Each structure stands twice: as structure tokens, then as C-alpha cells.
Amino acid sequence: VGNSSVLICSPKPNMTMVAWKINPKVGGPCSLGYRADQNRTDRTNCSDSINWKFRPDRDPTLEIRQVGRAHEGNYTCEVVVAEGNFHTAYYLTVLVPPRLTLSCDDQGNPVCEAAAGKPAAQISWVLENNSTPKEEEHDNGTVTVLSKFTAYSTNETTCIVSHPAGNWSKSIAC
To answer: What is the pTM of this model?
Structure first.
């Protein structure tokens, strides 16, 4: 989320046409096209964040700026030359980093929460215990993971959150 994504479509000599067909999981389809005989580009229902990275007659690479969850979906590039049509297909998966909070519950036990991440984060503790993480799925496809550490002392405890978008840790003494 928030970064740019670049999808490569290999150019061929003497391309007559290039088309990107985009079918996101949310919202309607969009397309970008280039016709060499007219040296013309067209776009249909694509947001401003989706565009050619370079000149499509030289390099038909697609760029998605400020990637959001709505960009997730299927992306297909079709290059047309005299020898035939060549397709390159992608499925764009958008990672949402979770928000990490660490607090103490009413019994003095540390509680670690990795909120609204996609996919679900993994929570572990320094000085592992018998904690069982609980997951709550949200309508927007994100997941909150909650883990409670059963502490037997008041020493500082560290919660470690692992996620494809990064790893984080926080420490607390309850």
C-alpha cells in the first residue's frame, strides 16, 4: 500500500498494438491501449494512478502509483505483431502492514495487537509461552491478530510481529 508497482510487458519488434486489460477485485475493469498505425493511445475507465511508465511504442511497461487495496486484481498485457499475439498475465496482491499496539490488561498481562493487516500477521514473544493468537477478519479483507502473554513476572516482555510488509517489535513491563 502506498508504493508504486511496475508490471513489465516485453516489447516485440514491429508491434502493431499493445493493450493492458485490468480487472480489479473491486470496481470495474479498465484498459490502456496503443495502436502503432495511428500512433495513438487510449484509456478506458482507468484512474490517473494507472498509466504507461514509458512511451508504449518503445516499452509497454505499466506503472501503478500510490498502490491501494482497490488495485488488487488481474493485469494482462497483450502485444500484437505479425507473428501473433503474446500475453503476459499478473495477479497483483496488495500488502497492508498492520498497526502494532502493546498494552497491559487488567490482570497485568501484556497484550499485543497487529491490527488491520493483509495478510494476517504472525505474533510471537521473547520468552515464548502458551499464548494463543486470535484472528478477526474485516470486511475490507484485512485481519487483526490479538495475542495475550500470560506473564509470571513483572519483567519487561517483547512482542514480535512478522508480516510480509515488514517485522516490528515492542517491549513493555506490566
So the answer is: 0.74
